[in-house]
Amino acid sequence: EPYSDVETGVDPHKDKILGISVHRTDRLKTDLRLRHPFVRVHIIDVNTRSYVRKLNPNRSVLHYHNINDQTQDFIPSVSTEPYDFNVNRSTIPSWEDMIVIDEDYSYFTTVQQQNVIFFFEILEYFNNPQNPTDRSNAFPIAWSFLKVNLTQIRD
């Protein structure tokens, strides 16, 4: 007879990682500078006002995004791909992007981590002809946040 995870004391979130779906936004205010907005996601510890630390500081948690974060002891911000208004011919940005954080899911949902928020920025970058993928020179368009609420966590 099989045993349930609860009966055996096994954490049902063990070996699961965190995925954050970035879908879309409503129509943004018209701005001639707004051509290819992107979303940058930050995972913040509100008590320290810093990025959440990794469980293992020497392990990369952003390798799905080809980001080498092994030299950092925290989870750095991650960006979606830009939404190009001209290519997509729509005034409502839709990224449909998955941000994958290769860290134990339970790390973000434990009682000790009730101080975690996910901070989302919609940004526009100034085009750099020498380096078209450079998004360091960006200006903010909008922002939002999501607070982890342990009573609403589902499998």
From TrEMBL:
**Could you state one GO biological process linked to this protein?**
motile cilium assembly
Q: Which GO terms describe its cellular component?
A: ciliary basal body
Which top-rank group of organisms is this from? Eukaryota
The record's InterPro entries line, in alphabetical order, gives:
Cilium-Associated_Jouberin
Q: Which PANTHER family match?
A: JOUBERIN (PTHR44499:SF1)
- Can you say what this protein is called? Uncharacterized protein
